[in-house]
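Hey, resending since the last one bounced:
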Amino acid sequence: MAMPPISLSKLPIGKLPMGPAPTSPVHLSAFPFSRLLVTRALSRVLLVAVLLLSPFGLAACAGSKPTAVLGCGAGTLPCLKGKAVVLLTTNKGEVQLSLDGDNAPITAGNFVDLVGRGIYNGTLFHRVVKEPVPFVVQGGDPLSADPKVNPELLGSGGFMDPATGQQRQIPLEILLAGESEPRYGAVLSAPSQQGRIKLLHARGSLAMARSNDPNSASSQFYVALRSLPELDGRYAVFGQVTKGMEVVDRLVQGDKLIKAVVVEGGTLVRAKP
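The structure tokens again:
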């Protein structure tokens, strides 16, 4: 018997569970195959549903949209020139990140700028998904630094730029091999594009969380706990954990990012690096 399709549009964005997706009541005995196969199939379908909707539980906030001219040439967003090394001090230990401004100048530059502003200090890792398979450790919501904020709101915040009074949002930024400039503002899912993406979701990759809008990333980030090729071309990778991945593996929901500092590089420009 064929299983009915799951309607992704009926799963609420920003209300996804912080762990395994709940299963609807299904009577396994009604299917002419083993319970184990059904359980595995359900787990895979539900995990894909979670990934495609908004794997990071980041609810879109009403903020300013990226400018019509995207990229570092627009001169409106900080861009990272070259590389940078950032040290995260957590309650479980230290994690070192290498940021790639050559292949993701806006995404990496935004992160370096927010580190310099102290936006990440005292925030929580508000979403950690390890079941049914290792997925991501997510943090970077400024709301999580305030213990008075309702926990249900965590994952909905972003960086409010004091210069504009609005939330800063950056475009999806993906560089393809053979091209001199990243592509901005659109998901790259064609097979001919997938094989050329420069920064892939490997274990330890650092990337930006966002809502369904490709141009809605603000401050929330995640570290991949395993290779996640299903996210390549959909979410912007801009760095890699170079030391302390064992610390990332020990993080659980509610652990704290005590402080983030740039320890090497970090030159920001507002034009093409």
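Residues 35-53 form the longest helix (19 residues).

Sorry for the duplicate.
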